[in-house]
Design brief:
Mean pLDDT: 87
Helix content: 25-40%
Low-confidence stretches: none
Strand order of the largest sheet: 1-2-3-4-5-8-9-10
Largest sheet: 8 strands, mixed
Number of strands: 11
Radius of gyration: 19 Å
Distance between the termini: 27 Å
Number of helices: 8
Shape: globular
Strand content: 15-25%
Length: 274
Amino acid sequence: MVRKLTVFDDSWLTRARTKKVDDSWVDDGIATTDAAGRIYLGSLQLWFDRFPLKSNKQKRALKIRLESFNTEDHLGAVNELSWWEFMQRTGSNATPVPVSTTPRPDFQVEIPAEFFAEVSTLNVSENEKKKFEAGEGIELNHSETLRRILLKVTREKQPQMSYAANQKRPCVLVLFDYTTWSAFGTQFFRFLADFLLGEKLGFNGLPAELSALVYVERKVMEDGRIAISRDRSAIYYNPNAQFPLPVGTFAALNQFRCQMMAVEPKFTDHWIWL
C-alpha cells in the first residue's frame, strides 16, 4: 500500500522562499502564497494524490522531482502529470508503467487503443541560456527546435520505443515544448507537420517503432490554472510505423496524417483545461 505523501508543504514553502538556486521556476512567484501560486501548487498536489503509482519508492521519486528547485526536473514531473490528466479528461484508460532498470515508456494505454506513451520535454537550450545570461537576443529558429526533436526521437527515446515494439504495440512520443518561443503563438506545429508529412516526408528518416508524435504547448495562466493549447498542439501519425496508431487517437488535438492531411477539432474554447 502506498503511503500518503504531501507535496509543497509549509516546510517546502519556507525553503522555496529562502532558496539560493538561480534561474528556478519558483522565481516567478509560484512558491508564494498568493492566489495564483496556491492554485498552481494546489493543482499539482491534487494530481499527485490521484496519480496511481503502486510503490512508495516511485511516489517519493515523483515528489522529489515535483519539489525540485531545478526547473527542468520540476517540469519533467509536471508534464507527466499533465499528460495523465489530459488522458483522463479525454476518455483514455491508462496506467503508469512500473520503473525498471531498463528504460520503459511512461504510460500503457488500453483505451481508445492499445499503445504505450512516453512523455518528454523540450527545455530552453544551453545556447539560449548563455545568450540570456549575456543579455543577447534570441532568434526565432524553428530549424533548431526541429533538430532537437529529431535527436530525442532517434537517440534519446529509442529504448522506450523498442520496448513498445517488443510488446508488439504502437508507441507515441509526447513532447512538451518549453523552448524560448513556444509561448508566442509561432505556429511551430505547422512547421513540424510540413517537415514530417510534407513533400520531403521527414518521417522517412525516423524509426519505424515511432507510431506517432504528439507536440504539446502547455501554459500556466495568470490565475495559476494549467491548460493545453488546442490551437497549437497536434498529433502526427507515422505512415511508416511498424505498429500504426489508429487515426483519431487524442481527437481533442489537431490531427496530421497522409501528406499533411489535417483535421482540426471543432471547439470554441482555445484551451484544454486540466
